[in-house]
Amino acid sequence: MKKLQSSLTNMVIVLTGVAVVMGAVLAFVNHMTSGPINQQKQQALTNGIKTVMASNDVEVTSTDTIVQNDAKGRQQTFIVYNTAKGAAVESSTMGFGGTLKVLVGFDPEGTILGYTLLEHQETPGLGAKADQWFQKGQKGCIVGLNPANGLTVSKDGGQVDAITASTITSRAFLLAVTNAYNAYKGNSTDAATGASQIKKEE
Q: Are the CB atoms for 100 and 176 separated by under 8 Å?
Protein backbone atom coordinates (compact mmCIF):
# COMPACT_ATOMS: atom_id res chain seq x y z
CA MET A 1 0.00 0.00 0.00
CA LYS A 2 2.89 2.33 0.79
CA LYS A 3 4.35 1.68 -2.64
CA LEU A 4 1.06 2.73 -4.27
CA GLN A 5 0.92 5.92 -2.21
CA SER A 6 4.51 6.70 -3.09
CA SER A 7 3.80 6.29 -6.81
CA LEU A 8 0.73 8.52 -6.60
CA THR A 9 2.69 11.21 -4.76
CA ASN A 10 5.49 11.02 -7.30
CA MET A 11 3.00 11.35 -10.16
CA VAL A 12 1.43 14.44 -8.58
CA ILE A 13 4.87 15.99 -8.03
CA VAL A 14 5.97 15.25 -11.59
CA LEU A 15 2.72 16.57 -13.12
CA THR A 16 2.91 19.71 -10.98
CA GLY A 17 6.52 20.23 -12.05
CA VAL A 18 5.64 19.78 -15.72
CA ALA A 19 2.74 22.24 -15.38
CA VAL A 20 4.98 24.85 -13.73
CA VAL A 21 7.69 24.44 -16.38
CA MET A 22 5.18 24.59 -19.26
CA GLY A 23 3.56 27.67 -17.72
CA ALA A 24 6.95 29.37 -17.51
CA VAL A 25 7.75 28.42 -21.13
CA LEU A 26 4.40 29.77 -22.37
CA ALA A 27 4.86 33.00 -20.41
CA PHE A 28 8.34 33.41 -21.90
CA VAL A 29 7.09 32.74 -25.45
CA ASN A 30 4.21 35.18 -24.94
CA HIS A 31 6.63 37.82 -23.68
CA MET A 32 8.96 37.29 -26.64
CA THR A 33 6.18 37.38 -29.26
CA SER A 34 3.99 40.18 -27.85
CA GLY A 35 6.34 42.87 -29.14
CA PRO A 36 6.41 41.66 -32.77
CA ILE A 37 2.64 41.02 -32.71
CA ASN A 38 1.96 44.56 -31.49
CA GLN A 39 4.30 45.92 -34.16
CA GLN A 40 2.40 43.96 -36.83
CA LYS A 41 -0.93 45.30 -35.53
CA GLN A 42 0.41 48.84 -35.53
CA GLN A 43 1.75 48.43 -39.06
CA ALA A 44 -1.59 47.01 -40.22
CA LEU A 45 -3.39 50.00 -38.66
CA THR A 46 -0.97 52.44 -40.28
CA ASN A 47 -1.51 50.80 -43.66
CA GLY A 48 -5.27 50.80 -43.10
CA ILE A 49 -5.28 54.52 -42.33
CA LYS A 50 -3.29 55.23 -45.50
CA THR A 51 -5.75 53.14 -47.49
CA VAL A 52 -8.92 54.80 -46.18
CA MET A 53 -7.40 58.29 -46.41
CA ALA A 54 -6.42 57.50 -50.03
CA SER A 55 -2.89 58.77 -49.44
CA ASN A 56 0.51 57.29 -48.65
CA ASP A 57 1.57 60.65 -47.25
CA VAL A 58 -0.58 60.81 -44.14
CA GLU A 59 0.37 60.98 -40.47
CA VAL A 60 -1.82 60.71 -37.39
CA THR A 61 -1.58 63.94 -35.40
CA SER A 62 -3.83 62.89 -32.50
CA THR A 63 -6.17 60.11 -31.46
CA ASP A 64 -9.57 60.59 -29.82
CA THR A 65 -11.77 58.03 -28.10
CA ILE A 66 -15.44 58.97 -28.38
CA VAL A 67 -18.24 57.22 -26.50
CA GLN A 68 -21.80 57.92 -27.57
CA ASN A 69 -25.10 56.14 -28.17
CA ASP A 70 -26.04 54.76 -31.55
CA ALA A 71 -29.48 55.13 -33.16
CA LYS A 72 -30.77 52.23 -31.04
CA GLY A 73 -29.53 53.74 -27.79
CA ARG A 74 -26.60 51.34 -27.39
CA GLN A 75 -23.33 52.81 -26.18
CA GLN A 76 -20.58 52.62 -28.79
CA THR A 77 -16.90 53.48 -28.67
CA PHE A 78 -15.26 55.11 -31.69
CA ILE A 79 -11.56 55.68 -32.25
CA VAL A 80 -10.79 58.78 -34.33
CA TYR A 81 -7.32 59.06 -35.87
CA ASN A 82 -6.95 62.73 -36.77
CA THR A 83 -4.70 63.77 -39.66
CA ALA A 84 -4.03 66.98 -41.55
CA LYS A 85 -6.27 65.66 -44.34
CA GLY A 86 -9.25 64.66 -42.21
CA ALA A 87 -9.66 61.58 -40.04
CA ALA A 88 -9.91 57.81 -40.09
CA VAL A 89 -12.60 56.48 -37.75
CA GLU A 90 -13.09 52.99 -36.29
CA SER A 91 -16.74 52.05 -35.95
CA SER A 92 -18.65 48.82 -35.40
CA THR A 93 -22.20 47.54 -35.43
CA MET A 94 -24.01 44.19 -35.56
CA GLY A 95 -24.19 42.65 -39.01
CA PHE A 96 -26.05 39.53 -40.12
CA GLY A 97 -23.49 37.13 -38.66
CA GLY A 98 -22.01 39.18 -35.82
CA THR A 99 -19.83 42.23 -35.24
CA LEU A 100 -19.04 44.29 -38.32
CA LYS A 101 -16.09 46.64 -37.71
CA VAL A 102 -14.95 49.24 -40.24
CA LEU A 103 -12.30 51.92 -40.60
CA VAL A 104 -13.60 54.88 -42.63
CA GLY A 105 -11.63 57.84 -43.96
CA PHE A 106 -13.21 61.31 -44.14
CA ASP A 107 -11.96 64.63 -45.47
CA PRO A 108 -12.51 67.76 -43.29
CA GLU A 109 -16.01 68.24 -44.76
CA GLY A 110 -17.00 64.66 -43.96
CA THR A 111 -16.84 63.27 -47.50
CA ILE A 112 -15.88 59.58 -47.56
CA LEU A 113 -12.37 59.01 -48.91
CA GLY A 114 -12.29 55.24 -48.48
CA TYR A 115 -12.91 52.38 -46.09
CA THR A 116 -11.69 48.96 -45.07
CA LEU A 117 -13.28 46.13 -43.10
CA LEU A 118 -11.36 45.42 -39.90
CA GLU A 119 -13.56 42.58 -38.68
CA HIS A 120 -16.67 40.75 -39.83
CA GLN A 121 -18.50 37.45 -39.48
CA GLU A 122 -20.66 37.74 -42.55
CA THR A 123 -21.55 34.89 -44.89
CA PRO A 124 -18.76 34.11 -47.41
CA GLY A 125 -19.86 34.98 -50.94
CA LEU A 126 -22.70 37.19 -49.67
CA GLY A 127 -22.29 39.67 -46.81
CA ALA A 128 -18.52 39.18 -46.88
CA LYS A 129 -18.56 41.04 -50.21
CA ALA A 130 -18.83 44.28 -48.21
CA ASP A 131 -15.04 44.54 -48.31
CA GLN A 132 -15.27 45.39 -52.04
CA TRP A 133 -18.92 46.12 -52.85
CA PHE A 134 -18.89 49.72 -51.58
CA GLN A 135 -15.41 50.61 -52.86
CA LYS A 136 -14.71 53.22 -55.54
CA GLY A 137 -15.86 52.08 -58.96
CA GLN A 138 -18.00 49.24 -57.58
CA LYS A 139 -21.79 48.91 -57.83
CA GLY A 140 -22.50 50.15 -54.30
CA CYS A 141 -19.73 52.80 -54.24
CA ILE A 142 -19.90 55.15 -51.23
CA VAL A 143 -16.56 56.88 -51.86
CA GLY A 144 -17.23 60.56 -52.54
CA LEU A 145 -20.54 60.56 -50.65
CA ASN A 146 -21.20 62.56 -47.50
CA PRO A 147 -23.23 60.79 -44.79
CA ALA A 148 -24.69 64.16 -43.75
CA ASN A 149 -26.99 63.77 -46.75
CA GLY A 150 -28.14 60.33 -45.62
CA LEU A 151 -26.58 56.97 -46.38
CA THR A 152 -29.16 54.26 -46.97
CA VAL A 153 -29.75 51.42 -49.40
CA SER A 154 -31.97 52.00 -52.42
CA LYS A 155 -34.50 49.49 -51.04
CA ASP A 156 -35.07 51.96 -48.19
CA GLY A 157 -35.29 54.96 -50.52
CA GLY A 158 -31.57 55.75 -50.47
CA GLN A 159 -28.97 55.99 -53.22
CA VAL A 160 -26.70 53.04 -52.36
CA ASP A 161 -27.15 49.66 -54.04
CA ALA A 162 -27.24 46.89 -51.45
CA ILE A 163 -25.15 43.75 -51.79
CA THR A 164 -27.19 41.19 -53.70
CA ALA A 165 -29.11 38.97 -51.24
CA SER A 166 -27.42 40.73 -48.30
CA THR A 167 -29.60 43.72 -47.43
CA ILE A 168 -29.10 43.22 -43.68
CA THR A 169 -25.32 43.35 -44.02
CA SER A 170 -25.58 46.38 -46.31
CA ARG A 171 -27.76 48.26 -43.82
CA ALA A 172 -25.39 47.37 -40.97
CA PHE A 173 -22.37 48.50 -42.98
CA LEU A 174 -23.94 51.85 -43.89
CA LEU A 175 -25.01 52.35 -40.26
CA ALA A 176 -21.42 51.77 -39.11
CA VAL A 177 -20.19 54.33 -41.66
CA THR A 178 -22.87 56.86 -40.63
CA ASN A 179 -22.03 56.38 -36.95
CA ALA A 180 -18.35 56.91 -37.77
CA TYR A 181 -19.25 60.16 -39.53
CA ASN A 182 -21.33 61.34 -36.56
CA ALA A 183 -18.48 60.58 -34.17
CA TYR A 184 -16.02 62.46 -36.39
CA LYS A 185 -18.24 65.52 -36.84
CA GLY A 186 -19.29 65.59 -33.18
CA ASN A 187 -22.92 64.71 -33.83
CA SER A 188 -24.96 62.53 -31.51
CA THR A 189 -26.11 59.38 -33.27
CA ASP A 190 -29.12 59.28 -30.97
CA ALA A 191 -30.81 62.53 -31.89
CA ALA A 192 -34.13 61.42 -30.38
CA THR A 193 -32.75 61.36 -26.83
CA GLY A 194 -30.00 63.93 -27.25
CA ALA A 195 -27.42 61.53 -25.84
CA SER A 196 -24.17 63.14 -24.88
CA GLN A 197 -20.72 62.07 -25.99
CA ILE A 198 -17.44 61.88 -24.13
CA LYS A 199 -14.27 62.84 -25.93
CA LYS A 200 -10.85 62.07 -24.54
CA GLU A 201 -7.40 62.91 -25.84
CA GLU A 202 -5.07 59.92 -25.70
A: yes
